[in-house]
Amino acid sequence: MRYTFLLYSDPADLAHMTPDDWGALKQVYGVYIGALKEAGVFVDTDWLQPVDTATTLSMKGEGRQVQDGPFAETKETLGGYFVIDVPDLDAAMAWAEKCPAAKTGKVEIRATAMGDT
Fold it and tell me: Domains in the chain, please, with CATH?
């Protein structure tokens, strides 16, 4: 079963990070990715550009509506994702607990629409 982890954090927590801080954070994520790969559950991951680069589009109502930024104003924003392939939600939660984002923000876990691989 495929699950997607949506990684949320407060951009203010990242605003004052130095290049060394970013390097250390990337190293922590590298270790996590390595563990996912070693376990054979890794499918995909990526960082997202900052929320101020987002564009939200809707065709609901009267034609195309485009808004700069995210649709909803929130303190925490979506910063990246992981897709894993594990037997069940319990296994997905076990991997989400190990995700570095869980220590500083939130990890939303969703089964993919297609479910089984």
Answer: 2-111 (3.30.70.1060)
